[in-house]
Write a structure and sequence with these properties.
The protein is an alpha/beta fold. The chain has one domain: Alpha-Beta Complex (Spore Coat Polysaccharide Biosynthesis Protein SpsA, Chain A), CATH 3.90.550. It is 31% helix and 23% strand. It has eleven helices and 13 strands. The strands form four sheets. A seven-stranded mixed beta sheet has the order 5-4-1-6-11-8-12, with helices on both faces. Strand 9 and strand 10 form a beta hairpin.
Length: 274
């Protein structure tokens, strides 16, 4: 068993997907490293984690694994970010189960890291630690979506506890969507340990905990950049400035990478509107 993390939280960033809806961009470049504001998406997640004191992070890789590992094997990430290469995708729950020893003994932050999200992770963690309703071993981040029929919509009671899921239905009861960012207590890993065939966290795990899932609402930006239109729209968002002193060989190389021109051309073609 791993020693407890300094703040009791370890993170799993799910970054192994192929990004099929973004082809042909993702034929040559991984979705989690798509530039937003000139910087890789995954870099924002890692900086957010570091800013709230998360010092133990695991990133799973599969699609364009060599490019992902090259990005993560940088001086700024060494010693606190690890990678696990999946020769075949294990699924969101499968990855969590396969790396259970990394997370045992504390709270797990589970993140679909191919989403563009600006949120207060510190407030999210504080809510889970101090204010989530009793009996809830998981807190889910939610957000307001302008297109609820295309998302997984969350129905909650007056305390913000999930009482139902509505996955991409024509007339959902609201627009609070599952943000695919979770804080999990060890009970969730224990549940998975007895179900080795479970692969998908959203569809095979969460429905078993309806009535025991707390929610925390993100009022900031939250986008699935998995389509050209949404990736283009994200380019209009105000992205945080990079920390000083973080320029290295990889960032110099990335600055001149053709993916920037490809995303710029895509943005111009989509002409997204807020």
């Amino acid at each position: 068993m791993a020693a407890p993390a300094a703040n009791g939280v370890r993170a799993l960033l799910l970054a192994a997907g192929s990004g099929s809806r973004l082809r042909p961009l993702t034929d040559e470049w991984p979705k989690p490293l798509m530039p937003i504001g000139g910087r890789p998406l995954l870099e924002y997640w890692l900086e957010s984690l570091r800013s709230v004191g998360v010092q133990d992070v695991l990133v799973n890789v599969h699609h364009h694994a060599e490019q992902m590992v090259r990005f993560l094997d940088r001086p700024c990430f060494r010693g606190w970010v690890s990678t696990v290469h999946e020769t075949r995708p294990l699924g969101t729950a499968g990855t969590l189960s396969a790396n259970r020893e990394f997370f045992e003994g504390g709270t797990t932050l589970l993140v679909h890291a191919d989403n563009w999200c600006q949120c207060d992770l510190g407030a999210f963690m504080a809510f889970h630690r101090h204010r989530r309703p009793e009996g809830c071993p998981v807190t889910m981040m939610t957000f307001d979506t302008p297109t609820p029929e295309t998302c997984g919509i969350v129905e909650t009671d007056s305390a913000g506890v999930v009482i139902g899921f509505h996955e991409k239905v024509a007339d959902p009861p609201g627009n609070h969507a599952n943000g695919a960012v979770y804080l999990l207590e060890p009970e969730m890993l224990d549940w998975l340990a007895h179900r080795p065939d479970v692969r998908d966290f959203s569809t095979e795990v969460l429905p078993n905990f309806v009535g025991r899932i707390a929610t925390w609402h993100n009022s900031g930006i939250h986008r699935d950049i998995g389509t050209p239109d949404m990736l283009a729209l994200a380019q209009q968002d105000q992205a945080p400035d990079p920390p000083r002193g973080e320029i290295d060989d990889w960032s110099d190389w990335f600055r001149d990478h053709p993916v920037h021109r490809q995303v710029a051309d895509l943005t111009a073609a989509c002409e997204p509107k807020r």
